[in-house]
Amino acid sequence: MAEANWYVVHTYSGYENKVKANIEKTIENRHLEEEILEVRVPMQDVVELKNGAKKTVQKKMFPGYVLINMVMNDDTWYVVRNTRGVTGFVGPGSKPVPLTEAEMKPLGIKVENISVDFAEGDTIAVVAGVWKDTVGVVQRMDFGKQTATINVELFGRETPVEISFAEVRKM
Questions:
Q1: Would strands 123-126 and 135-142 be described as parallel, antiparallel, or unpaired?
Q2: Of 16, 87, 120, 164, whose CB has the highest number of CB atoms within 10 Å?
Q3: E-strand stretches of the chain
Q4: CA-to-CA distance for 171 and 153, rounded, in angstroms?
């Protein structure tokens, strides 16, 4: 299988989150989870002064652009290119150019993968985040996104929850 790279997609201004949602829904519908690994709208915290009060808000780092971690092939190119709101990939002509590691570093995109000592079917404990102190059984692992899907009991029923590898440990 070819290697996944980060690509920049140009969108209509203000459509970044809609494009992200549409691509994620298409990934799910067409079962492209192994080829399109992540869609991201880079955000940054900005302190605004309104009516004499400081307020921290999230703003888009690059209005009109969405980052996609994917394996470039005809299918993935077609899916992304034909998503409503997408005007094209960033690159000369119609050929997308992947981001280099140096370009990704200031965006906060980590390239290193976390190695884990658990597998599907193992019981793990969540040690950080919203689900801290929760115990669950690993149902699915996504090494591209570095996440594990576990079942937790919520309101008396089993509910699947996606947790980052960095937030869990094997029991």
A1: antiparallel
A2: 16
A3: 5-11, 36-40, 43-50, 53-60, 65-70, 86-89, 123-126, 135-142, 147-154, 157-164, 168-170
A4: 17
Q: Residue 85: inside a domain, yes or no?
A: yes
Take residue 39 and report the two structure tokens written for it. Answer: 């869609």
In the numeric block, the tokens 């980590």 are attached to: 110
Say if residues 35 and 124 touch (Cβ distance below 8 Å).
no
Here the CATH number for the domain that contains residue 29 is 3.30.70.940
Structural domain for 148, as ranges = 123-170
**Residue 169 one-letter amino acid:** R
CA distance linking residue 166 with residue 159, whole number of Å? 20
Question: What Cα–Cα distance (Å) separates residue 40 from each residue in 14, 24, 81, 160?
Answer: 14, 10, 16, 22
Enumerate the β-bridge partners of residue 135. 125
Token couple for 58? 């999230």
> For 37-77, how does the pLDDT look when each residue is reduced to its tens digit (9 = 90+)?
989 988 888 888 888 888 888 888 889 999 999 999 988 99
